[in-house]
Design goal:
Number of helices: 13
Radius of gyration: 24 Å
Strand order of the largest sheet: 1-2
Order of helices and strands: HHHHEEHHHHHHHHH
Bound molecules: heme C
Number of strands: 2
Structural class: mainly alpha
Largest sheet: 2 strands, antiparallel
């Protein structure tokens, strides 16, 4: 079989096909993951999206393993020659890195699911048995760090790969411009409730990953070792990005959780009202859920021992600040407020959700949504009372 110099050999064609396929799936996935934070965690709608997403991940993972096996054991080449060839030049190395990277990114995604006891299914039918212990990966921080790094690498590798192909037909600058325009166009159709963080990722972060990828590619092409420290800086940057964005300390910065000190409330507490009194109609409840959905990016609002970046909010109403059982990440400021007798009443919640940084100095919560409007704020507080009411 003779190779067409423009379109490349088998490996390149395979890489091209899969990078376009994965890129399209990726755009689709970011679209949905931009919508899902607007749905309350644990709700049926959100679970449906979540499971579709996991099953697609499991299916692609198995597909990737099959393709790798076929490629490795294809007749006519030894395994060693095959592996050497896979890293023989920049273009082949990009494809190989792409596959290796996809493998680990998917494994990490599946591992996160297994750690939570979720069933992943190939083609939505055949359960994929968990084969590793992922208990370390439940930390919300690692999840964010891994996903920012994998998004960055994934986008950069696809970009460089498509760029090396386009460049054969147009000037490099035109190729970059075309790819960025294409990326923006693909991400233009937006669902009504897309989360602004997803917008930021699609329009700002991913194009910058492209440029970083391209810069690395240029270094690598000249085989300059300097790209290793640059790569290290980039990885460290992405490991810390969730910290800057969400103000959540990486696991390696956490000291052992101190013992919780329980005190009496400074004021008399009014017990939560019955659920039906808080939201007389299902419309009231739905509207409050919609507003509170911002919070469930970081907080679980369903009965569960699991904490996300923030503590589980079920039962927060009338609870001493900084005392959710099993959440080991409170700021000193929050613990202090609790020990000084602050309990989460309507009045305290209203203060915290309108100007949290002044109300609890040193808080790590970055609520990301403006609740200065008293109507919205009350809806959220009603919702916190609702999930704490028996
Ligand atoms: C970006 C992540 C994030 C978002 C979004 C977020 N929180 Fe938080 N929240 C946290 C973190 C982290 C803490 C722990 C803060 C600390 O220890 O200083 C926290 C603490 C709290 C507490 C105190 C809990 C306790 O046990 O003392 C309440 C109440 C709370 N959040 C409510 C909300 C509400 C309501 C919203 C939505 C309007 C929201 N949060 C949005 C991360 C977040």
């Amino acid at each position: 079989m003779k190779n067409n110099p423009k379109s490349g050999g088998f490996l390149e064609q395979l890489g091209l096909f899969f990078s376009v396929l994965f890129y399209t799936l990726f755009a689709w996935h970011s679209w949905w993951s931009g919508v899902s934070p607007r749905l309350i965690r644990g709700s049926a709608e959100r679970d449906a999206i979540h499971h579709a997403h996991l099953n697609i991940g499991a299916t692609l993972f198995v597909l990737l393993l099959l393709i790798f096996a076929v490629w490795l054991f294809r007749p006519g080449t030894s395994v060693i020659t095959g592996l050497k060839k896979a890293f023989s030049d920049v273009s082949n190395t990009a494809v190989s890195l792409f596959f290796i990277f996809m493998f680990f990114a998917m494994l990490a995604g599946l591992g996160q699911a297994w750690a939570k006891g979720e069933v992943t299914k190939v083609l939505g039918v055949f359960p994929l048995h968990e084969f590793l212990d992922w208990s370390w990966s439940t930390s919300g921080y690692m999840h964010s760090a891994l996903s920012t790094i994998s998004t960055a690498f994934f986008s950069a590798i696809v970009f460089v790969y498509l760029f090396t192909h386009l460049r054969k037909y147009v000037k490099p600058g035109v190729a970059v411009a075309l790819l960025i325009i294409l990326h923006l166009l693909i991400n233009l159709p937006k669902p009504p409730s897309l989360h602004p963080i997803a917008d930021f990722g699609a329009y700002v972060l991913v194009p910058s990953y492209y440029l970083i990828g391209l810069a690395l590619f240029c270094w690598a092409k000249n085989r300059r070792w300097v790209y290793i420290p640059i790569l290290t800086v980039i990885v460290v940057f992405f490991l810390y990005l969730p910290y800057f964005a969400f103000k959540v300390l990486p696991p390696w910065h956490q000291s052992a959780a101190e013992e919780t000190v329980f005190v009496e409330s400074k004021e008399v507490l009014t017990p939560p009202r019955p659920k039906t009194e808080i939201f007389p109609t299902s419309e009231n409840l739905a509207a409050a859920k919609e507003t509170a959905s911002w919070c469930t990016q970081c907080h679980n609002a369903v009965e569960s021992k699991e904490h996300l970046l923030g503590p589980n909010l079920v039962g927060v109403f009338n609870r001493q600040a900084g005392t959710a059982a099993g959440y080991g990440r409170y700021s000193k400021g929050m613990v202090k407020a609790g020990v000084e007798g602050m309990f989460w009443t309507r009045a305290n919640l209203s203060e915290f959700l309108s100007h949290g940084k002044e109300f609890v100095p040193g808080t790590l919560m970055n609520q990301q949504t403006d609740l200065s409007d008293p109507v919205k704020r009350n809806q959220v507080i009603d919702y916190l009372e609702y999930i704490s009411s028996k």
